Amino acid sequence: MKIAIILLVWIGLWWLNTRLARSAKTAWFVPVLFGITLLLLWELTVRLFGVSPVILPPPTDIALAFGSEIPTLWEDFVQTIIKGAFSGYIIGCGSAFLTAIIIDRSPFLQRGLLPIGNFVAALPIVGVAPILVMWFGFDWQSKAAVVVIMVFFPMLVNTVAGLQASDHMQRDLMRTYNASYIQTLAKLRIPTAMPFIFNGLKIATTLALIGAIVAEFFGSPIKGMGFRISTEVGRLNLDMVWAEITVAAIAGSALYGLVSFVEQRVTFWHPSQRG
Amino acid sequence: MKNILPILTVLLVIVAVWYAAAIKMNAPWTYAQAERAGTEVTFSEVVRDTLAQERPVLPAPHQVAQELWDTTVMKKVTSKRSLVFHGWVTLSATMLGFAIGTTAGILLAIGITHNRAMELGVMPWAIASQTIPILAIAPMIIVVLNSMGISGLIPKSIIAAYLSFFPVAVGMVKGLRAPDAMQLDLMRTYSASDAQTFWKLRLPSSMPYLFASLKVGVAASLVGTIVAELPSGATRGLGARLLSGSYYGQTIQIWSALFAAALLAASLVIIVGVIEKITLRRMGMAV
Lengths: 275, 287
Hints:
B: 77% helix
């Protein structure tokens, strides 16, 4: 009986979604409805089968926890995202960008550093978190340091690739204008590198959040999203954990959206943006 | 092969910087010890001491190499202090999770390419989910599954599977869409069924995309497994080695676990790369 109700809801919404997908006018609503379907099925399953909230709290409980714990969530958000992830993101991406410009002048360094950079980008770098927590202490500085290392190599590899994206004809044209190195860099090579740079920035947003949260598992002051998740799991207070995850999800998507928005403004000339 | 010389130079510089940093960062401890003992130390003594401390702030490369050698070759494989043992625990969970995640990812991609409602509904969420720090829920999944009586390999594999799932699904959708309209039209003129088009055109042309995302996925599932080993009393696996090292200040142990994880990640990516090369060559797609 219970299974029948859940299946009925699922099939009903599925049918509605298939109908909506056929018309171009209503197609934008399909992903929204899919999300609603998931939440509804989750709620129904938990309520009807009486799943213990220690295992999986229903979405409404999570929303309630979210609503009543906003001050705590905000404090954790500031500690982890603003102080830890954001400062690390800026330092890491900034220094990777500068390093890329320096490397770009020397083909020898390029051939040496790029394979190593590619290799390091695939490694489980989160593993350096305990070491950096030992070096920089429990507060946000160590989290920022983890983020710096995590975002550095993807950003470096992408920027170096981007700086080589301008083709020979364009560079020759700059030479016929008698443009200096700085002028060529500022007017031709950095603008052509922008799509690559934004690709690196986008990859780095997710990495920054992961780094900042996971580094808190190795020790942190008594605030922060990673700290809250690990302690509330210990107290089996799962609706709070899910509220923190919601914050992380919103922050991650918002940061990613912000980077994509700037990208659209900066690289409006690129084929992928003209769709 | 012309890259060998630059790479070696860069590596050499890294090792040199590492030694210098080790001396600089470990020196305060040496000076403090000397002051407590009331003795003066010369610079050469400081260097010798900083490179051989038992719990250095930054262990020297040869100490890490020594520890790696001791815990892999010199220990019995079944010993709890052997990195081979811990590496195997991590590797088995990674492989199980990777297999589950890849299979699920490919199946979802097939569903998405054949059903418009699924494409419109699922794809935005699959892409959005990549912007979310999924690793953050790893400890919760472990604890919850533990409280349901499931422990050991499975919870870790679930996290590893989750992390490799989306890269594979997204890459595979791109790959299954790779054949252009001309090729699809040709299949239609042959009166090929959907299944035939899938097996003879879509699946083969998706292979380069599949392998590109498999490389991302296998690295991601290893990271997932290691993070999953961090919380709540896990005693086996590379992640547990990292955590116990950080609790007891055993820096050399942390560094050796880190290098073991790096070697594991590198060999997994290389193995996928070799399989890719062989497969693509036999399909006549290799360059």
